[in-house]
Design goal:
alpha/beta, Rossmann fold, 4 domains, 8-stranded mixed beta sheet, 6-stranded parallel beta sheet, DNA-binding
Length: about 675
DNA sequence: CGGGACAACGTTTTT
DNA sequence: CGTTGTCCCG
């Protein structure tokens, strides 16, 4: 009997086998979460309530209880979060904790699907498409549909991708997404339904998998193949999921299928911190969990260890403005603290200077730069501040926003590598063939056809008959590619040869090629850390490097530099001092979010997440008098999420800017 | 095929 | 306003 085996390994062992003093370092709720090893558990963990700590100790506890580390699966929102928890568990206990299986749903899906790729009909591997690949593929198949031009234009490819992705993540039809979110495109709804079908078929034919497919295919694999479900479920006997409020229906299904048999599953989340509904996340998953797993033990962590009471007074006031009542109220025993400040700046420059000056004062007062963060709604909100920081010689790392890996030259490099692994990848073939001089869509298509028909992978290049027009370019391409044997060459060597080949193309196509050349060098240095091409490519798609290239790269996120981050990327993190800039109504919430009640509510939660990152100091600021071109209106009110909050909770401060001076008056 | 000129569109967050 | 798609010509 399997059950008796599990019960033996997991039953509470003798007290004295534990080396970690759990009772002394955890509060009663945390302790209960950490020591309840069997059966379904739902932990509702408020901001700063020691959620990460709880998960870390629980990993250690499981391992200490004799569960083999490989039988524990820890699903988190970013891979970094998983690594960090396992690292901390290792510090608490020992090296065994490093062997726990951890990662994001997407990376877990990737490794699992590769194990069972034959079942799915991908016998030669598959390529993961990033967002830009998805858009390109959609645009490509849309062009192939030869739509009647008189019948009105389709949405742009970016919007198409958003629509198709939303339909998948919400588990609804394309028509429904269009009618709810894009009523202006209702005329094209049926075309989009067809487009979705063709796009699916296209991916299948060319062994391409987008982000959504990773989840969907894993779910289907678990649902439709009982043998595989059983194997995986017996392998991962203890499942933990972090940030459960930001999972969607498919992810909840995966958890249900994976843990349905042994029911040893703990999910941790906070409904008031759900900030990914825009891509299908449903905080309803949290409320539904006890129904899916009857007998769930519900544990609430409500004591906040992060922030001072004045900061919590503000965050409670913010979340109190939600129309939905959330499941808990936070309290702290942390003494003292000063009220958060709301700073009104005349213009953006004044706001930037205010932030820079305060940072300098904090440094003088002995606060390390790494303990300070500036948070904002959208990537571009920090541009002006970045200039001022450079001017003041303050090192920073920017997280979120700009996608280094999605720039054209980097994608060109990766496409050359992708066809080595998956020669059916039409998208990448197309991309690299178009780089050849005098090769356009038609010639690219013809060459690709010849390659695929030979069915011989990259080696098929030898048999292609180039037209005289592009013969010379083609021969150079062919010679380079035929020489790239992934079994013989290291990843970095492969990359270096491609870059060498690509250099003249780069110079011909881009004015700023010196900078792009440096980018390529940077990617080559990343390659040095990989021993197989698939691993490298999968990582670049699933966990691309985030730091920007020019100047301020270097420092890792946990060290030294000041952090500039979108609020989405700041999830789960905390700092001594937090600045929230551009808290201007019309920017935060963005005017586009002010239409629907639901979008607005998510923006409110976003403000809540931002404010709850602060331990000691919280500064919220906004530039007044910003003219918005698109709506032809003047934006001058503070964000509605903080407007009108009492002065004893959020202390107002007016920044004036005359000449070079900065006056902080009241 | 490649480049230039022009028109239309929609604007954010990320695996 | 910047990006994307289309059309036309050399």
């Amino acid at each position: 009997m399997k059950h008796s085996v599990i019960d033996q390994t997991a039953s509470p062992p003798e007290q004295d086998i534990f080396t970690i003093p759990y009772e002394q370092v955890l509060n009663p709720s945390q302790l209960e979460a950490v020591t309840t090893l069997d059966g379904p558990v739902l932990v509702i963990a408020g901001a700063g309530s020691g959620k990460t700590r709880t998960l870390t100790y629980r990993v250690a506890r499981l391992v200490e209880s004799g569960i083999p580390p490989g039988a524990i699966l820890l699903l988190t929102f970013t891979r970094k979060a998983a690594q960090e928890m396992l690292r901390r568990a290792t510090e608490l206990l020992d090296y065994r904790c490093e062997k726990v299986a951890g990662g994001t749903f997407h990376s877990f899906a990737n490794v699992t699907l590769r194990r069972f790729s034959a079942v799915m009909g991908f016998d030669r591997g598959f390529t993961i498409m990033d967002r830009a690949d998805m858009e390109d593929a959609i645009a490509f198949v849309a062009r192939g549909m030869h739509l009647d031009k008189g019948a009105g234009r389709l949405p742009r490819k970016r919007t198409l991708a958003t629509i198709l992705s939303k339909a998948v993540n919400k588990g609804v039809g394309v028509e429904e997404v269009v009618s709810v979110d894009y009523p202006n495109f209702m005329f094209a709804a049926q075309t989009l339904v067809r487009l979705q079908r063709i796009y699916q078929a296209y991916k299948k034919e060319h062994a391409l998998v987008d982000y959504d497919d990773l989840l969907v295919i894993l779910r289907d694999l678990l649902r439709d193949h009982e043998g595989i479900r059983q194997r995986l479920s017996e392998h991962y006997r203890y499942v933990m999921v972090d940030e459960y409020q930001d999972t969607n229906k498919i992810q909840a299904d995966i958890v249900r299928l994976l843990a349905g048999r042994h029911r040893n599953v703990m999910v941790v989340g906070d409904d008031s911190q759900c900030i990914y509904a825009f891509r299908g996340a449903r905080f309803a998953n949290i409320m539904a969990f006890p129904q899916i797993f009857p007998g769930t033990k519900v544990i609430k962590l409500e004591e906040n260890y992060r922030s001072t009471q004045p900061i919590l007074d503000l965050t409670n006031a913010i979340i109190g403005r939600a129309s939905r009542r959330y499941t808990k109220v936070l309290f702290t025993r942390k003494p003292g603290g000063t009220p958060p400040v709301l700073a009104v700046a005349e213009d953006e420059r004044t706001q930037s200077r205010f932030v820079v000056r305060r940072i300098q004062e904090l440094q003088t007062a002995g606060v390390p730069l790494g303990d300070i963060a500036v948070l904002f709604r959208s990537g571009f909100h920090s541009f002006d501040l970045e200039i001022e920081l450079n001017r003041a010689n303050i090192a920073f790392v920017k997280v979120g926003g700009f996608k280094f890996m999605e720039t054209a030259h980097i994608k060109d490099l990766l496409a050359h590598m992708k066809v080595l692994i998956n020669p059916e990848d039409a998208l990448s073939w197309h991309r690299i063939l178009l780089l050849l001089e005098s090769v356009g869509p038609k010639a690219a298509d013809e060459i690709f056809r010849q390659i695929v028909n030979t069915g011989n992978g990259v080696a098929a290049l030898a048999t292609v008959e180039p037209k005289p027009r592009y013969r010379k370019a083609f021969e150079r391409f062919k010679a380079t590619m035929l020489d790239l044997d992934p079994d013989r060459l290291s990843v970095a060597e492969t990359g270096a040869r491609i870059v060498h080949y690509y250099q003249p193309i780069l110079e011909r196509r881009f004015d700023n090629h010196p900078k792009r050349s440096r980018d390529l060098e940077h990617v080559l240095s990343i390659m040095a850390g990989y021993d197989t091409l698939d691993r490298f490519l999968a990582d670049m798609a699933l966990e691309p490097p985030t730091a920007s290239v020019d100047g301020n790269l270097a420092v890792g996120k946990d060290h030294a530099g000041l952090v500039l981050s979108t609020i989405h990327s700041a999830k789960g993190l905390e700092w001594h001092t937090v600045f929230i800039i551009w808290a201007l109504d019309g920017r935060f919430p963005s005017i586009y979010a002010t239409r629907s009640e639901q979008d607005l509510e998510e923006e409110l939660r976003l403000m809540y997440v931002a404010a709850t990152r602060a331990q000691e100091n919280l500064y919220i600021s906004y530039p007044a008098n910003i003219y918005d071109r698109t709506t032809a209106t003047l934006l001058y009110r503070p964000s509605r999420f903080i407007d009108g909050i009492g002065e004893h909770i959020l202390e107002p401060c007016v920044l004036t800017h005359d000449g070079d001076g900065l006056d902080m008056g009241w």
